[in-house]
Amino acid sequence: MVYKVSAQAITCGIFVQGGNISMTVTFVYGFNSVEERQSLWEELVFWNETTPVARHPWAIVGDFNQIIRITQHSNHQRELIDTSGVNDFNMAIQDSEVFEAQAKGLCYSWCNNNDENPISKKIDHAFINQHWASTFQDSYADFLEPQQSDHSPCLMCVPSLRLQVSKPFKFFHHVIDHPQYEEVVSAAWNCGSIQGTCQFKLMRSMKLLKHVLRRLNRRHYSGISKRVKAQAEKIAELQRSLLTNPSVNTARQEHQAREIWLTLIRAEEKFYRQKSRVQWMHLGDRNTPLFQRSVTQRASRNHIHFFKDDSGRKIVSNAEKKQHAAVYFQEVLGYTSLSTSPCSITQLQQLLPFRCLEVQIAALQKTVSEEEVKATVFALPFNKSPGPDGYSVEFLRASWNIVGGDVIAAVQEFFRNGRLLKDLNTTTIALIPKTPEACKLGEYRPISCCNLDMSGLDMNPAKSELFFGGYLAIQTEVLSGLSDIRIGAFPTRYLGLPLNPSKITFATLQPFLEKITNKLHSWTVKSLSFAGKVTLISSVIYGMVNFWSAVFVLPKRFYEKVDSLCSAFLWKNNTTSAVGARVAWDDICKPKAEGGLGIRLLAEFEVVFRVKQVWNFFANAGSLWVAWLQGNIFHRKSYWITEDSNRFSKTASFWFDAWTELGPLITYIGEEGPRKLQVRKDARVIESTRNGQWRMPGARSEEIQNFLMTLTTIAPPEVSRGRDIYLWRNATGTFTQTFSSKATWEQLRVHSVPVTWCKTVWFKQSVPKCAFVTWMAVQQRLPTRDRLRLWGMNVSSACVLCSNGIESHDHLFFGCSYSLEIWQDLASRIWQNPPLDLMAASTWILQPRQPTRSAATIIIKLILQSTIYLIWKERNSRIFTTTSTPSTSVKASIDRMICHGPIP
After folding, report:
1. Average pLDDT, rounded, for the chain
2. Long-range own/partner contacts, residues 458-461 (CB < 8 A, 24 or more apart)
3. Residue 453 has what pLDDT?
4. Position 643 pLDDT exceeds 60
5. Contact 541, 519 (CB under 8 A)
6. Which residue ranges traverse the bilayer (predicted)?
7. Domains of the chain, first to last
8. Is the pTM of this model over 0.85?
9. Beta strands at 58-63 and 124-129: parallel, antiparallel or unpaired
């Protein structure tokens, strides 16, 4: 059934009556120019926002005449790619809430058919929405050979039957919160009745416990999203009854139903966070939509639909895929072409002259204590499994009182006899695709504990490249053929970073910048609150940039671009412009104590990385990098005066290093210093001594006199005392042997005046979304009606909460009778006479009181933040949805939020 036909798209419904299958598919043929494609993007967004398509399986396939990222251009490593239209395309994808279907086959879908300068691009795409990925979990897009066309045909494969396979056990973290969890685990855990070694008892008990935990999860949490929805409908029904015909029994039922619902939504959030593997976002702020979208996208991306053998035959059935993988890895992991023979202990002792001291031997043979085992287990990262048995660290920590003794016994047994059970001595091979279109097992990177053996014993030609300088083309081809290693070209990548003989330019960083943009464009982050966006920027985006900055000197233009992208993402949910941002980015990039959000301005923070590289040059003299610089770049020249090439002497410079408290002497004494003291400008400190004593002429100026007096407190350098060490001077004047980026940034950055309300807004127990709205409120940056009118908008100035006054920050918090009733009633339960002004209240909360009650201070802070958040939410609800909530219901919501955590 055709729904709509336009110049660039045909949208139709497809129904398979026999299989009760229905889907919507939009077939696209995009125009050639960027301007003409704007109407196509608007049409796709229209289908998602204003039609029922978004609530059903929807796919978009066809020729878009546009790449999504520069890596979809065959020359992206050799030339600057035209990115016009890329940003518009990505924004359309995000606003349409679709993502790329897993693609198989060819990586490019179009070529220019130019024999002299062949160029290939991927301008044909297949996109799906979340409902499609959930309904057709085995679907994928297969890009085939073009045959007589210049485009690759796209075959959208939708298998009609999904084979049900038994999944291995996985411990779900939300089960820990069940009231009967400890009782169930304790009843099922009985190592004492099992005969065998400590390791066998532990593994047998864990295996028996799996059935009990599966049953507990299935009984109380299966279909968790449906349970949450059903419980919400039950609460709504009870509330209707309570507001129609109130009774004590109905009120109690509503309270009990809400308690169950709160337990379920917390379990739902934990469940989807665990499956999504999103580590940077914390629990407790209702991030379930983000986690659900991440789960859907991960499942679609990670599913292996088929393998191809060496002959190109597809292997589809699970049985054949298992057999194919087993044969492949037996040849890779279980076979070697090298003849080996065991080496005796005597032969090893002859080869290795090193012997441990008696003290070291005793330390190595010492029994592992219970405290060491427990500390090691509790130091493991969350949401990680110590082994392939499905139990995570959360299980061990939550059940340590029950299982801890048996875990300790098994570990100590291993250190006593050195034997490890087969059940423990196993690993899971995870296949990481090297390319998005990976089909053959050789195109996957196997990650496992035995990967070290695979990579370390023999050189892998498939992972190697040859680079030549000054060779003829025929010579490079001959050497490449003899070694069976392909010829590489710069820039190449190593450990995720580009290697290039020339300086990194903004053009070189284009793929990295695109990766950052894709993170911000992703439809999965569209549902994030402002607080969630701040977390994404500070944890993920800045983490990526800092990793590169610690290695390379990146151009300032790059940092400014990233800051611009992050600002636009935070305020406008795009990456084009942040015009109209409520708070300037420079103010956001201040410490929280100074009114910002604790984000560091990259364009300014990059100087810390440069300073750290200078520190490493002096302090890490044993590294290969420093040795190369000293031998080739800074030879017999001071680091501080070398311009472009030729630098450095082996130890401290007399004139340019700060080896006294006076700082660099060339600055303190002046350019005439070398002549007055008769010490060469490139001299080392040790060259100014003779026979273990300082060799200095008489003083000719006050500065030289002070310097000579300082020398009397410094022992002359001697070779017998060992190497000089460099110390880092902190802002307090103390010295340390380690470099701290945080402390250095505090010394270098421009400080602002601290704000008085910082601890009222930011504290450990705060709810992120409430704290963010409070942060904007205390700075009077919420878009109240008085501010909207100042911006030229034609809106009413009346307060929608009380209809009696002009809506402003001062009126809303708490000059309005509606907000005043809520704040005064709740705050007076903790402390009497709360102030009726927001700024006064933020200061009043922090005043010292006797007796000191930290719990009361935390509660009053939560009351203030929850009141501000829900008042602002109620204000928006009345304006945009014309629905209103009485103040008594808002007070009840605040009470529940403080007692049970944030609610949607």
Report:
1. 84
2. 458/336, 458/338, 461/485, 461/486
3. 39
4. no
5. yes
6. none
7. 2-157 (3.60.10.10), 173-302 (no CATH), 314-430 (no CATH), 622-722 (no CATH), 758-900 (no CATH)
8. no
9. antiparallel
Tell me the per-residue pLDDT of 711-757, one tens digit each, with 9 for 90 and over. Answer: 888 877 776 666 667 777 777 777 787 888 888 888 888 899 999 99
Looking at the DSSP assignment, which residues form a beta bridge with residue 444? 433
- Counting Cα atoms < 13 Å in the Cβ hemisphere of 299 gives 21
How does pLDDT run across 234-259, given as a tens digit for each residue?
988 888 888 788 888 988 898 899 88
The length of the chain is 904
The proportion of the chain whose per-residue pLDDT surpasses 90, expressed as a percent, equals 27
Answer yes or no: is pLDDT of 647 > 50. Answer: no
Q: How far apart are CA 231 and CA 573, in angstroms?
A: 33
Cα dihedral: 723, 724, 728, 731 (round 10)? 150
Neighbours of 797 (CB within 10 A): 13
Are β-strands 492-494 and 497-499 bridged in parallel, bridged antiparallel, or unpaired?
Answer: antiparallel
Q: Within a 10 A sphere around the Cβ of 675, how many other Cβ atoms?
A: 10
Contact 89, 68 (CB under 8 A): yes
**Cα–Cα distance measured from residue 100 to residue 98, given in angstroms and rounded to the nearest whole number:** 7
Return the HEC string of 577-644: CCCCCCCCHHHHCCCHHHCCCCCCCHHHHHHHHHHHHHHHHHHCCCCHHHHHHHHHCCCCCCCCCCCC
* Residue that the structure tokens 């980015």 belong to: 585
Q: At what angle do helices 838-845 and 854-880 cross, to 10 degrees?
A: 160
Q: List own/partner pairs for 5-11 with CB under 8 A and 24 or more apart.
A: 6/39, 6/43, 7/31, 7/39, 8/37, 8/39, 8/40, 8/43, 9/40, 9/43, 9/44, 9/62, 11/47, 11/53
For the segment 94-148, what is each residue's pLDDT rounded down to a tens digit? 888 898 888 888 889 999 888 888 899 999 999 999 888 888 888 889 998 888 8
Highest mean pLDDT among 495-499, 632-636, 766-770: 766-770
Joined together, the tokens standing for residue 497 give 């970073």
Provide the token pair at 879: 């304006």
Q: Rounded to whole angstroms, how far apart are CA atoms 712 and 693?
A: 10
Give exposure, 186-217, as e/b (b: 16+ Cβ within 10 Å).
Answer: eebbebeeeeebbbbbbbbbbeebbeebbebb
